[in-house]
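Subject: for your reference before the review

Hello V.,

The reviewers asked for a structural picture of the protein, and I figured it would be easier to keep everything in one thread rather than splitting it across files. Below is the amino acid sequence we used in the manuscript, unchanged from the supplementary table.
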Amino acid sequence: MAVAVAVAVAVVGVVVSGDRTLDREGLEKALPTKADVPGYLANRGVVTVLGPPGDDVEGRAVLIGEKLDRQCQVYRANDDPWACDGLLGMGIVGFANEKNVDSRISSLVLAYDGNGAARKAWRAMVEQTRKLVGGAAEQVVPRAGDESVVFAGKSGSVVTVRVGSVVVQAVTHFDYGYRTGNQPSELKDPIEMWVKVQTEKIEEAL
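And here is what came back from the structure prediction:
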């Protein structure tokens, strides 16, 4: 089974509690669109360290207020309370490769009320990711944000990044091979492209 890819990226947007973060509009702008990833179609992507909310439309959703509170109840029930401490908003987006639906990329964007809350969440996410992809080699490329850890596997990578008060987890499986018959070695891991696109979208949203 392909290894999930997690990318945590942080950002700057609206002043909150002395730090800057993304509001609803910022989260919307921070989520890549089809125009940002030629060759990919909107899709629910793959499961991240945190289970994605179920009310997305073609893999895209922004949660704040009551919707975010309901999702946090799920995370707390699943022993993931760390994700919701100081959390102000969440965005998700996912795509599948046009030529191979089993090759997918997705992001989970978490905007916190300050750098401290984001740092704690990032550290917890790193530990959760390490357990999820147990056995994957840890490395430092591609680098992104203020803090980052990369987990590399045979058919995927996991990158966790924090930039300021926003944490982003980008996940990718670059081939299962069910539909095309391709072996993982025949395909290129899109993690560097995906990290670059997601980071640029966040920077533009700030």
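For the response letter, the relevant points are probably these. The chain has four helices and ten strands. The longest strand covers residues 87-97.

Happy to draft the paragraph if you're swamped.

O.
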